[in-house]
Design brief:
It is built from twelve helices and ten strands. By secondary structure, the protein is of the alpha+beta class.
Amino acid sequence: CALPIFRYGNTRELTLGLEVVLPRGEIWDGLRGLRKDNTGYDMKHLFIGAEGSLGVITAAVLKLFPLPRARVTAIAALKDAQTALSFLAHAQERLGSRLTGFELFSDFCLSLVLKHYPGSVAPFAERFPQYVLVELSDLESEAQARNSLEAMLGSAIEAGLVIDAVVSQSLAQFKAMWALRDNVSEAQAHEGPNIKHDVTVPISRMAEFIAVTDAELARAFPGMRNVTFGHLGDGNLHYNVSPPEGVAHAEFVRRTEEVNRLVHDSVARFNGSISAEHGLGQYKRDEITRYKSPVEMEMMRSIKRALDPLGIMNPGKVL
């Protein structure tokens, strides 16, 4: 299932040290594993996310956490994405660090999974606009984890944040719930060509971003179907677009640049990023120059020139 980054953090937060082979063949040994080191620039962050364009990472020191004794999931039905933000705050307040997953996905996402994965089962007898998959990890017992999750959901229903909810009662149900979320991307691929966006916006503005961008797409490209899902806990949204029903694949693909521009411009207006986890590579290498300032782009180029003056490290990527 998806990495529970809500509790444990992303790669940058988990990395304490690196060993890197530099373009000239020198080896930088940064494997100190210190949680605090204020002796100048934090070099490891230059290489994380640089896609091998500054050096080759050959070893790493990572943070570790105790293996939880229990993991329990639930799927909650909500009326809209804005309510999901209030539900997130509610869950954080009552579960604290035991909250390890908080994944938002729309009813259209669910419909694609049910269509293309015949063994999938809808979590509720009726359908709702939005769903959140919640995961709780506990160091005590599964019974305690389930009781805590059920109590949180009960109070969320009483507060009007959640319409209905179902909690996993077995490992099989746990996996089945995660599959409804994890299979969204593949289900969309089975549906046909799509235009993918891996973006991030401030968590507090994610619902507004979805509403505004959905409306702009609907005006510019009537009938486009949005497959919207992601890690609400850290603001990372997979904002994918499928063609209107009946539209030829070639005609849809021809509009890719226009769709990307609309979505990415909307991300920029919300002070977000056009790549949250997947990087720039070649596909977004030139696109990023529209959204980063000349000062920031020159800072990146200066670092590249200083470390890799011959341009031999993964050439043509990132810059």
